[in-house]
Amino acid sequence: MINIIGSNNSIFNQIVSEIRDEVIQKDSMRFRRNLERVGEIFAYEISKTLEYHEKNVQTPLGVAKVNVLKEQPVLTTILRAGIPLHQGLLNYFDKAGSAFISAYRKYNSDGTFNIHADYMSCPSIQNKVVFLSDPMLATGSSLVLAYKALLKNGTPKHIHIISVIASKQGIENIKKHLPMENTSLWLGAVDDDLTVKSYIVPGLGDAGDLAYGSKL
């Protein structure tokens, strides 16, 4: 299931426009906060698809029957660009477990690159609902690598892939390598092209650098 939040008119698109805007991007604090804000909107939309059960809540005047989450998801993100998006999800799923995966592009002399994962901190995901977030779904290689790394800690019941901007190529890569019968994609927008260095066009640039500064 592919859900493109930006395909309908909402305040979500106003925030995404700021995330893309090269002038507003110069304020790294604003950029991080905007990623966090869209994470909160993704969290709300995904929450509608989860399982709930009825709970009796004692108020000062009686007992209220309220539907609450049946179980908490595990929120997973890819360092470092995914941290603000993860925080937005965590703001709403504040009792959820968290997992972090360090993945990076290792460039070769000919300009090509391979994706490497160096570190993972993760609870058990056996039969859990897992959120896997990364602001950019370019080639999809980082998310596929992260998913395979997660399987060392169990087999999830369902996985929600969350990205602000995706490429068509990245979506196809996810569909090829992940079990689509229990995978949902939640995207802000889908762009058509990738550069020769696999950056999304028009995209927004390097999310990690914009959030936390350039790297060597």
Q: What do you see in this structure?
A:
It is a single chain. The chain has 216 residues and is α/β, with parallel strands linked by helices. The protein has a single domain (2-52, 66-212), classed as Rossmann fold (3-Layer(aba) Sandwich), CATH 3.40.50. It is 31% helix and 35% strand. The protein has six helices and twelve strands. The strands form three sheets. Strands 1, 4, 5, 6, 7, 8, 9 and 10 form an eight-stranded mixed β-sheet that branches. Strands 2-3 form a two-stranded antiparallel sheet. Strands 11-12 form a two-stranded antiparallel ribbon. A hairpin with a 5-residue loop joins strand 5 (97-107) and strand 6. The protein starts with a strand and ends with a helix. The model has no long low-confidence stretch (mean pLDDT 93).
